[in-house]
Amino acid sequence: MTTILVTGGTGTLGRLVTERLRADGHEVRVLSRHAQPYAVDLRAGGPGLARAVAGVDTVVHCASSPKGGDEEAARHLIEAARAAGVRHLVYISIVGVDQVPLGYYRSKLAVERLVEESGLGWTVLRATQFHELVLRVLQGAAKLPVMLLPAGVSDQPVEVAEVAARLAALAAAAPAGRVPDLGGPEVRTLPDLARSYLRVSGRRRRVVEVPLAGGAYRGFRAGGHLVREGAGEPEGGHGKVTFEEFLTERAERAGRAGRAGRAGRAGRAG
């Protein structure tokens, strides 16, 4: 088995990638700003990064921030990986980074190009939005009495555990270049997703679609962020877990945790 470094290994995706790789018998190092012994800020680089990649066969690069710094972080990581003789760099990107003119997407696309031109063996996987991100957007919109959502926009949310499994498999294999995109099992309109969220959460809100302006909105409305098939595009992969299944499992987990907490408090009181 190989030694694999996972950047952003304590995050939503990186944590699951780490668990999957360890379950498959790989030696895994977790790099994040606060995880010892490889606590490294990739935007700064430095000797800590060199120690983290020393003796590593493969790097799975999950660390990312919409607040900026991804390109600088990737340059530092690639430089250290080349110096250490890393064999394979796996990068997780987003479906639509070349179709939707959003600042964060432009940064992800720039990192893709850095990876491709790194001189390392490389693999790039693009995935659609995680269920968790769509949920956060809907929860934010539901803070108002009326849920205001961009008109005419659909989404294709995917289960993060399925993305993690795909990344782990790619990390264990030979460099493959740009691989087929991974999207969720269903393309759904935002109002449809919102109504599913309201139904499972037991909340009541009026859902209203609002036309917006700008290139990013036009890109999302045109479906540039969805997995494309046919018309000369490579066939994309699809996850299996639907948004309703994600919401239901999350609600059931919260219910079990609540019951366990109440039982614990009752036991202590008795």
UniProtKB/TrEMBL annotation:
Q: Where is the NAD(P)-binding domain?
A: 8-131
The superkingdom listed in its UniProt entry is: Bacteria
| InterPro entries in the cross-refs | ComplexI_NDUFA9_subunit, NAD(P)-bd_dom, NAD(P)-bd_dom_sf, SDR_fam
Which Pfam families does this chain map to?
NAD_binding_10
- What start-end ranges are recorded for coiled-coil regions in this protein? none
Q: What would you give as a GO molecular function for this chain, any one? A: protein-containing complex binding
Q: What is this protein called?
A: Nucleoside-diphosphate sugar epimerase
- Please report the organism this UniProt entry assigns to the protein: Streptomyces showdoensis
